[in-house]
Design goal:
330 residues, alpha/beta, Spore Coat Polysaccharide Biosynthesis Protein SpsA, Chain A, eight-stranded mixed sheet, 47% helix, 15% strand
Length: 330
């Protein structure tokens, strides 16, 4: 599957586990165990699975018992270890977990995604080529009601099916990606105030060094965002992060940043309309719901515009983004 004597480890952060139910986490853990068993059956060595959490070290045993109760198979097919980074955010937990990984390939997966059959072999197979540094999987949102279908249409993940054009241009998925350990340890996810900016900065480092991101059809589904509180907060932080990315990748000029907030508003409004009208049928959305979905999508990206504009104009200060306690499930 990969080159001879290759070993691999998996790192799972537990930050996102705060926003879903434990039975949902258990579905993902069982699927992960299934994938590891399939790879081990093909001859690859038993991996280490690193569970990286942001609670105190004293809470590790309780977390271990919860995981063992939900998915005892995981401890049977892997060497399960736990690392604590008290107060750590999403990327902090990935970086901290990576340091405990002992395989020469490190795969990052999140606690709120569920691998499809064939995910792990698909992610490992390209590493047969020693020139490949990064293998990026395919993440999509699950959907079973009006709001989850709308999110699947407007979100930054491609849809599960019928979205090949968007999928071919997808960015790095920090929740479904593998790296050569030697490279990622020397290029950890950058420390940044943004919520989901560090993976963009890491992708820039990778490309700047002349490496390519190898996209594969190694699929996981991500539980859909939930609740109007999450909707409101995530839209605003999406806008603020868009401005942060513009500063990092393009220009710190306040005039250019403000202008970008308007151009992105128009771009995302048109993209939202095009995707909902063009792909609603593929999600199973009834025709009568499409106008309401368009309204929800436009509200989301109007809030994102305000988040980006207010940040670019200096109305809102640049502070560390954390998930507020009032949000509840996401």
């Amino acid at each position: 599957m990969v080159e001879e004597r290759a070993t691999y480890s998996l790192v799972m952060e537990m930050e996102n586990a705060k926003s879903i139910d434990w039975d949902e986490i258990g579905v993902g853990l069982k699927a992960l165990a299934r994938e590891i068993a399939a790879v081990s059956a093909s001859g690859l060595a038993r991996p280490t699975v690193v569970i990286s959490h942001g609670a105190a070290e004293s809470e590790t045993d309780a977390l271990h018992r919860k995981i063992a109760a939900e998915a005892p198979q995981l401890g049977q097919v892997s060497n399960l270890i736990f690392t604590a980074f008290p107060g750590g955010r999403y990327y902090d937990l990935k970086n901290n977990g990576m340091l405990a990984a002992d395989g020469n390939i490190v795969i990052f997966i999140d606690s709120d995604v569920v691998p499809e059959p064939g995910w792990l072999p698909g992610l490992l197979e390209p590493f047969k080529d020693p020139k490949i540094i990064c293998v990026n999987g395919y993440t999509y949102l699950s959907h079973d009601d009006f709001f989850s279908r709308t999110f699947a249409l407007i979100w930054f993940f491609p849809m599960a099916h019928g979205d090949s054009r968007f999928a071919s241009k997808r960015a790095m998925n920090a929740n479904n990606v593998g790296f050569r350990r030697e490279w990622i340890v020397s290029h950890p996810f950058p420390n940044h105030n943004g919520f989901k900016v560090s993976c963009t900065l890491l992708m820039r480092e990778l490309l700047r060094e002349g490496h390519k991101i190898h996209n594969v059809n190694a699929r996981v589904y991500h539980y859909s965002p939930r609740g109007w509180r999450f909707f409101y907060w995530r839209a605003l932080v999406t806008g603020r992060d868009a401005d942060r990315k513009f500063v990092a990748l393009n220009s710190p000029s306040r005039t250019r940043r403000v202008a970008k907030s308007f151009s992105r508003w128009f771009t995302m409004s048109w993209r939202t309309t095009r995707r909902i009208v063009g792909h609603a049928r593929e999600t199973g959305m009834p025709l009568w719901q499409i106008p309401f979905s368009l309204i929800v999508g436009q509200v989301f990206y109007s809030l994102a515009f305000w988040g980006q504009f207010s940040f670019a104009a200096g109305i809102v200060r640049d502070e560390i983004e954390t998930v507020p306690d009032y949000i509840g499930h996401s």
